[in-house]
Amino acid sequence: MKKLDDITDLRHAIATHAAALAGCDSTTAEKFVLPQTIETHRQAAAEIARIPRPAKVETLALAKVGFQYISKLRFTNGNENAMRRVLYRWRKEGDGKWVIVSVEDTTGKRSSWSDIPDLAAAVAQARAENGNA
User: Fold this and answer.
1) H helices present in 54-98, as ranges
2) In the 8-state DSSP scheme, what is residue 133?
3) What does each C-alpha distance from 76 to 90, 112, 122, 128 come to in angstroms?
4) What is the pLDDT of residues 80-119, one digit of tens each?
5) How far is C-alpha 59 from the geometric centre of its chain's CA atoms?
6) Which of 2, 16, 93, 104 has the fewest CB atoms found within 10 Å of its own CB?
7) Helix (H, G, I), strand (E, B) or coil at 59
8) Cis before 117 (ω within 30)
9) Which pLDDT belongs to residue 117?
10) Minimal CA–CA distance to 29: which of 48, 16, 39, 40?
């Protein structure tokens, strides 16, 4: 059986980042974000900041995908109308620091794949447009 990774440092990074977002501390939160991800992160953070205080954080999931980890968090104040669900993809850098490489707000979606068009419908439409039906 394969030994599980020790991700204590990742769990600490996730908790620190989430607490910063729940407390509207963008300076601390953005220390974890890669520059190419900053705009998406800021959009999600702005939505989280709209939750009336006090906001709390719930960890919904943490999964390893290849060499990266996906954390799914819910930010809420107990009112379902004041809630955001966000996926963060984390990667460990060569210096040992964990960084966020992508952010996706999944609040209005059934799943993170909900906005991917149905492949069968897309293929059928393409064939019809090309005369290859």
Assistant:
1) none
2) -
3) 22, 19, 36, 46
4) 778 999 999 999 999 999 999 999 999 875 555 445 555 5
5) 11
6) 2
7) strand
8) no
9) 55
10) 16
Length of the chain as a residue count: 133
Residue with tokens 């019809």: 128
Count of beta carbons in the 10 Å neighbourhood of residue 115: 10
Signed CA dihedral, 58, 6, 64, 45: sign only: positive
- Cα–Cα distance measured from residue 51 to residue 8, given in angstroms and rounded to the nearest whole number: 29
Residue type, 90: W
User: At 79, is the pLDDT very low, low, confident or very high (cuts 50, 70, 90)?
Assistant: confident
Give residue 119's identity as a one-letter amino acid code. L
Return the closest-CA partner of residue 29 out of 108, 82, 78, 100: 100
pTM above threshold 0.85 = no
Q: Which two tokens stand for residue 2?
A: 């394969």
